């Protein structure tokens, strides 16, 4: 008896959403410490050097100057749990984000390939893989953005806390900015996510296709191992993050604009500091130099590589397991 097409599509959507949510949750929790360090650098307006000038003839150290130093500071001031600051809203963001992303991605690939079978996706044009990834990233971003904003605010504040809980942060944002405030920084986020998601999924498909061809030529078997999937995800995450990091810095500045921050963490981003993305880039370059656009690049790449690898491997495993248990 043939399966009803609509029933099959619903089944596939549930599998993609479930596998995406689980893989996103695992990846986010594993890489949270690097994400916290990255955000601390990105919202630090002072130059990332041992000494910076704050006034004429007056010098004081930047709060964070390197990954190792930042790790020690966070551990000393906030304890081990400080590395998971903002992880609850991060999970609330990333689980629906990856669920929406993989569901939309699979649907777009199905439409482009004309088949719901993943085996046929290998024949999909690389350009369609990039486009599908970009559109899926946009849909997922819009659906989960308020949690991304809350995650950034909580992860950036340090000790003493300005916002003790996610609820406090939410209430203050709505009180100060209104409901629209929950979408502060959405425009630069969309601009960032289009190339980022496109590169991440496009390069993953490309590396996966190359690996399968290599296996076929060398072993006469194109089946791909979990370790090879991990390496493909690692490479895809690294490429995407290295290219798009400056846009991520701009996004973080808009997200914390006008919000309180303890004085020991340096200057905060004032309300109306940036008119638009171009203005933000120009002001960052003028005040902080080119390194300002790459603040947090090292923890970002260190995080993006395993995050991409864990996400893709966990998704493939979970998807296969759900498919086998469903039938």
UniProtKB/TrEMBL annotation:
It is a multi-pass membrane protein. It comes from the Eukaryota. This is Mitochondrial carrier protein-like. One of its GO terms (cellular component) is mitochondrial inner membrane. SUPFAM superfamilies: Mitochondrial carrier. GO terms for molecular function: thiamine pyrophosphate transmembrane transporter activity; thiamine transmembrane transporter activity. It holds the Pfam family Mito_carr. Belongs to the mitochondrial carrier (TC 2.A.29) family. One of its GO terms (biological process) is thiamine pyrophosphate transmembrane transport. InterPro entries: MCP (IPR002067), MCP_dom_sf (IPR023395), MCP_transmembrane (IPR018108). Coiled coil: none annotated. Solcar repeats lie at residues 11-111, 124-210, 224-321. Mitochondrial transporter that mediates uptake of thiamine diphosphate (ThDP) into mitochondria. Keywords: Membrane, Mitochondrion, Repeat, Transmembrane, Transmembrane helix, Transport. It is found in: Mitochondrion membrane. PROSITE patterns: SOLCAR (PS50920). It comes from Zostera marina (Eelgrass).
